[in-house]
């Protein structure tokens, strides 16, 4: 089971949304990380077969995906980032409808829907209309429809947007179990959503893949660049002005522990800490720092 993306590009008028991307994706959970506008959705739409590359080709087990035709819907499951529902349908009716489109038998449909509603904690709302559901529930219905045909390749574009912390934990657990002997590709700009479940990560910036590897491999680059230092609230503004801060933690003694990224320590009290994927991400996307730090 392998997906080969060979020199794929997508041009929109004068915008090169995806620029000469090559990736060899094998079974496991893959995190596609990148800031908004990096090109993740465009790349995923091409892999999901709903948009043609301007250049390059995509193959699944040696077969160009454009020639898979009907077989394609047996192999792939896709959750788009912008997911249009049929708001007047109930959850169950909607899933039955998608199952018909995907060619499932009546018997398989019933079994599969029951299983998914249970795994995604949606049993209580099975007869509710979709437009009556919360954002997180709608997202879970979207994940359910992508899983209906038990796909070998599951493509989820920002699957965790709108999920609350509990839903995020359940989602990660479900995907980890599902991913055995399958390919799961998850795009996100929230590092913590994939840090612990992704077998591999691909980091995308300006339409290109700028790094791939396991989380451990990727964070190597940040060794010796992540520092922590305890400062008083009076000292804090100076640190905030001069440094790329990735986290602030209030301590019991009224001081603040500052975590920052730098080639060299800013002060003699700073000590080196073990890098995390989020540190690398913010190093690569410094403009995201203000948005991501909570
Ligand atoms: N249909 C389109 N027409 C023109 N430009 C587009 C279209 N789709 C995406 N883009 C542009 O391509 C770039 C990548 O977008 P997108 O793939 O949505 O990135 P991401 O999912 O990482 O946020 C952005 O600059 C976006 O504005
Ligand atoms: Mg997107």
Automatic annotation (TrEMBL):
InterPro entries: AAA+_ATPase, ABC_transporter-like_ATP-bd, ABC_transporter-like_CS, P-loop_NTPase. Residues 3-231 form the ABC transporter domain. Transmembrane segments: none annotated. SUPFAM superfamilies: P-loop containing nucleoside triphosphate hydrolases. The keyword Transport applies. Gene3D superfamilies: P-loop containing nucleotide triphosphate hydrolases. PANTHER family: ABC TRANSPORTER, ATP-BINDING PROTEIN. Keywords: ATP-binding, Nucleotide-binding, Transport. GO terms for molecular function: ATP binding; ATP hydrolysis activity. This is ABC transporter ATP-binding protein. Belongs to the ABC transporter superfamily. It holds the Pfam family ABC_tran. It comes from Clostridium sartagoforme.
């Amino acid at each position: 089971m392998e997906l080969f993306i060979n020199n794929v590009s997508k041009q929109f008028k004068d915008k090169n949304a995806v620029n000469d991307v090559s990736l060899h994706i094998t079974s496991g959970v893959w995190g596609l990380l990148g800031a908004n506008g990096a090109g993740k959705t465009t790349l995923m739409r091409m892999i999901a077969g709903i948009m043609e590359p301007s250049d390059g080709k995509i193959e699944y087990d040696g077969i160009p995906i454009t020639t898979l035709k009907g077989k394609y819907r047996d192999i792939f499951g896709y959750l788009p980032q912008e997911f249009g529902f049929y708001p007047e349908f109930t959850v169950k009716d909607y899933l039955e409808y998608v199952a018909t489109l995907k060619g499932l038998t009546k018997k398989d449909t019933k079994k599969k829907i029951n299983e998914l509603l249970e795994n995604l904690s949606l049993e209580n709302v099975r007869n509710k209309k979709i437009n009556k559901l919360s954002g997180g529930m709608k997202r879970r219905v979207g994940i359910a429809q992508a899983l209906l045909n038990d796909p070998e390749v599951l493509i989820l574009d920002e699957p965790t947007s709108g999920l609350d912390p509990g839903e995020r934990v359940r989602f990660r657990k479900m995907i980890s179990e599902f991913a055995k002997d399958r390919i799961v590709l998850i795009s996100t700009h929230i590092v913590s959503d994939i840090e612990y479940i992704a077998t591999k990560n691909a980091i995308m910036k300006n339409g290109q893949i700028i790094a791939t590897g396991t989380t451990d491999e990727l964070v190597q680059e940040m060794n010796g660049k992540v520092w922590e230092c305890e400062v008083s609230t009076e000292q804090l503004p100076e640190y905030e002005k001069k440094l790329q801060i990735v986290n602030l933690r209030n301590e019991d003694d009224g001081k603040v522990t500052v975590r920052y990224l730098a080639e060299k320590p800013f002060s003699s009290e700073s000590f080196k800490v073990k890098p995390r994927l989020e540190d690398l991400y913010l190093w690569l996307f410094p403009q995201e720092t203000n948005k991501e730090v909570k």
